[in-house]
Design goal:
By secondary structure, this protein is of the alpha/beta class. It has a single domain (about 5-210), classed as Alanine racemase (TIM Barrel). Helices cover about 40% and strands about 20% of the residues. The chain contains nine helices and eight strands. It has an eight-stranded parallel β-sheet. Helix 6 links the parallel strand 5 and strand 6. It binds pyridoxal-5'-phosphate (PLP). Pyridoxal-5'-phosphate (PLP) binds near residues 193 and 213.
């Protein structure tokens, strides 16, 4: 077993005092590792490939909350719409529309986060600030999705000042959106991973997505 119980309990107590939610990123990890963390009390898990999520979901207890944090293709929404707790990577209006449609079919309302592009790398997915505001303005048209916040990834760099600046940028977009769209319930700011979660919390994160720190390095 590669799950380290001490690391988990320490992280949880650190986060609990700050009111930050821990999301365990279990991508590429075996179900036995997920079960081990579940036994320690963890309930929120995240995957970033649809097939892997669909394979693992039935093997864990039904009160496990599954988050999708990868780039979601529209034609794959239907595979996770019946059970996904929070879809974190909404990066286009057309994806939001498809989630609304599939959620309707399952007579659910699916919670989502808008993914915002904050990193300097071109390759990372995400919306611009303008796109965020235009999607938020249209949110009432899609009653089967509930936009509850935003998600972002900082640049992959050792430059902690740059990481901090990027997280603060997302925080300011989030704060502006909360003011301008006070009728929505924007409450979740998902930012921070194993290497930068303390900076992210410092910048106002309410949910961190931690993989390698909990499960060990991915091969
Ligand atoms: C893999 C992944 C993480 C976790 O990364 P670690 O560095 O292993 O903590 C967090 N967020 C997203 C979107 C990921 O794809």
């Amino acid at each position: 077993m590669s799950v380290n119980a001490n690391v988990y309990h320490q992280l949880r107590s650190e986060l609990d005092t700050q009111g930050v939610t821990l999301l365990a990123v279990s991508k590429t990890k075996p179900v036995t590792d997920i079960e081990a963390l579940y036994q320690l009390g963890q309930r929120d898990f995240a995957e970033n490939y649809v097939q892997e999520l669909v394979d693992k979901q039935p093997l864990l207890p039904p009160d496990t909350r599954w988050h999708f944090i990868g780039h979601l293709q529209r034609n794959k929404v239907k595979y996770i719409a019946s059970f996904c707790h929070l879809i974190q990577g909404v990066d286009s209006l057309s994806l939001l529309q498809e989630i609304n449609k599939q959620a309707h079919k399952h007579q659910r309302v699916i919670d989502v986060l808008l993914q915002v592009h904050i990193a300097s790398e071109e390759t990372k997915f995400g919306l611009s600030e303008q796109e965020v505001f235009s999607i938020l303005a249209e949110a009432p048209l899609y009653p089967h999705v509930r936009i509850i916040g935003m998600m972002g990834m900082a640049s992959f760099t050792d430059n902690t000042q740059q990481v901090r600046t990027e997280f603060l940028h997302l925080r300011s977009i989030f704060d502006t959106a909360r003011e301008r769209f006070s009728m929505l319930s924007l409450s979740v700011l998902s930012m921070g991973m194993s290497g930068d979660y303390r900076i992210a919390i410092d910048c106002g994160s309410t949910m961190i997505r931690v993989g390698s720190l909990l499960f060990g390095a991915r091969s």
